[in-house]
Amino acid sequence: MNREALRAETLDILQEIVPDLEPERLDSKASFRDQFEIDSIDYLNFVLTLEKKLGITIPEVDYPRLSSLDGCLAYLEAKTGG
């Protein structure tokens, strides 16, 4: 997947967890938790949904790398060969 496809998929998944998400107002460098005040269960659901939709495995040790949009995209590009 290329970066734009990964971005779109990531934002779709985030919108499932944060229905009032406004993608144009998202700070790509800031933590999702800080921006949306999601709890640990929401964050876990986000990671698990990424795994399912992208057909990848994300080790728990890598979860912090997915905490912002920029970090998430960099990680997913490397993981999917994008």
UniProtKB/TrEMBL annotation:
It comes from the Bacteria. InterPro entries: ACP-like_sf, PP-bd_ACP. Residues 4-80 form the Carrier domain. This is Acyl carrier protein. Signal peptide: none annotated.
